[in-house]
Write a structure and sequence with these properties.
With about 475 residues, this protein is an alpha/beta fold. About 55% of the residues lie in helices and about 10% in strands. It has helices at about 15-25, 40-45, 60-65, 80-90, 105-120, 130-140, 150-160, 180-210, 215-225, 230-240, 265-275, 280-290, 295-305, 315-350, 355-360, 370-380, 390-415, 420-430, 440-450; strands spanning about 10, 30-35, 55, 70-75, 100, 125-130, 140-145, 165, 170, 170-175. Helix 8 runs antiparallel to helix 14 (about 315-350), helix 11 crosses helix 12 (about 280-290) and helix 14 (about 315-350) packs across helix 18 (about 420-430). The longest helix has about 35 residues, at about 315-350.
Length: about 475
Amino acid sequence: MKEKVKDIGLIGLAVMGENLARNIFSKGFKVVVNDLKKESVDSFVERFSSDLVEGAYDYKELAEKLSKPRKVFMMIKAGKPVDEVIEKLLPHLEEGDIIIDGGNSNFQDTIRRTKYVESKGLLYIGTGVSGGEEGALKGPSIMTGGSEAAWRYVKEIFQTISAQVDGAPCCDWMGTDGAGHYVKMIHNGIEYGDMQIISETYHIMKSLLGLDNETMSQIFSDWNKTELDSYLIEITSEIMNFKDEDGEYLLEKILDKAGQKGTGKWTGIASLDEGVPLTLITEAVYARCLSSMKDERILASKAYKGTEVNFEGDKKVFVEDLRKALYAAKIISYAQGYTLLKTAANTYNWKLNYGKIAEIWRGGCIIRSAFLNKIKEAYEINPSLENLLLDEFFKKTIESLVPSWRKVVASAIINGVPVPALSSALAYFDGYKTLDLPANLLQAQRDYFGAHTYERKDRNRGEFFHTNWTGRGGKTSSSTYNV
């Protein structure tokens, strides 16, 4: 008689869900698959016929075919569909069973759902799964959070199906409730930033240096043998050299209007909520928004005279400056992202392991790169490191990159090549290392028009003062608070 007890159920057989299910049974685990479309279930079971695969056509049947505690993995669209499936699953599950959301859910939703599902006597996991369709099939990076009691039941499956780097799985427990999806959100924000700064270097190569696709492809290929060794640099080289059916480069035919699904925006919103300057990633989001205004940009390009491009110098030397500028901005992106992680951990009482996060990002995911080993080492040396820029390795590295970084940003600005991410990263670095910023004037202005008070350099920190700047005001001041 055929074994009916399966290790895990998976709901949602779109590209990611199907490939994840294939990954699961390929590693020797039993999986029951379900989808809204009966034909999708039939097709999967027929194409991947195995004692480790079985279909279920409703949630009752799915629950009946799973061993206890049941583990049900949802790979469905984030938002309302997740809540709807949870409600439909609950009547068929029992105390201790586990519901898993592997989509790109907002971490606040995961916090809410964890509390709700736990109130029903069940366990809930919100897990980030990164790597796209290839990662889902061959081994993604998996960032798990939610009900801590659930981790021991899914740990073996998750760590086995994840990518492996140096014998270590690219999967671990991040923390309670929304921690897993928060880490995934930061991952996606960094992904936005990486893609933007790479695109800006491409724009400079093309518009300022006048390089052709074959040359640029080779440059990115060469860069992939340096500190910039990463998935995104690798695929950029391949994209540059890819030709359409007519023999022309496909990249030059693609409309310069970027799309987005929201996780980068969420990262920017979270940074504002926490009061953490996430300038590079936020500029990357805005750059996509600006690119989407294609029709307006066409009008503007006709209304304004273009800046005359005039590059003088050794292109080979400048390409090396570009590489260094890209590396410097990449460091800033991660420094900002990790600062937001640390601040959020305090807000939500998560015990995040920052070195471990870097470790699980080394394989499977979109931002995987050799560079992450240095971040892992930095937090192993100092687990309470306030900012990556204060780590000795990154301090020395940034100092060596700054001259080239300034040269690249200045040249781009002078020649009218927009570099919002590269330049905002440099502005952040300059602001971060500046002892006296002009915020003293800001505080004086706020006190002048709104009696918002200020602190003094010559008095104790935490002591606030108000000045009657005009002689017409009184001694009453506004309460002091930060939002």
